[in-house]
Amino acid sequence: MGHGRSRDAPAAVDVLIIVDTLSFSTAVDVAVSRGAIVYPFSYGDHKAAQAEADRVGAVLAHPRRAAGGQFSLSPVSLAGLSARAKLVLPSPNGSRLSAACNGIPALAGCLRNADAVAKAAREVAGSGIIGVVPAGERWPDGSLRPAIEDLLGAGAIIDRIALPCSPEAKVFRDAYRSAGQSLNRLIRDSLSGRELTEAGYVGDVEIALEQNVSAFAPRLIDGAYRAG
Predict the structure, then answer these.
(1) For the whole model, what pTM was predicted?
(2) Quick one: pLDDT at residue 66?
(3) β-bridge pairing 37-42 and 86-91
(4) Is 90 helix (H, G, I), strand (E, B) or coil?
């Protein structure tokens, strides 16, 4: 969603905020809050991901369903990351969008860090344009599936940026404002929320619902998200 004087994103924006609430952006925030560095990587090619992890001296996050307590896209699994740890984090949505930023300054935003990310975006953009990108999900055939958790997460950040914005951004902001005390229920009951809960990852949903508990604004620098 464009913020400011242009609706042409991403080429015409000065900073991008990627919002993948369940769970990439939340996972990145949890990791960066612990002092870790996160390298986003496109999902689906384990061999290439392992090669990248070896290249940068990082641990490769495993699929969420993998047994054995490994680090994964599950934010709960990242609570044990040590400071200065390096993690290659494959994901089908947030990582793919991160790779598409093409040098534009980018931040990983979610409900946990909405205030911090809004502040950082304004500082990075200056008088320029802020683009907010709700990641969405995918249906089994690969087509885009709207995801209200990303709509509401983006709306929370847009609300806190508090600048004139495009009609599209206003709709997201107003949806967040309208959700009010129903926000947690809406996300828990969303398709994405129910998928995670039914798969046994209710803790990941609950972490993602925490609002403004993080003072960090993970920024993509040299291919990795770091504390801003």
Answers:
(1) 0.93
(2) 67
(3) parallel
(4) strand
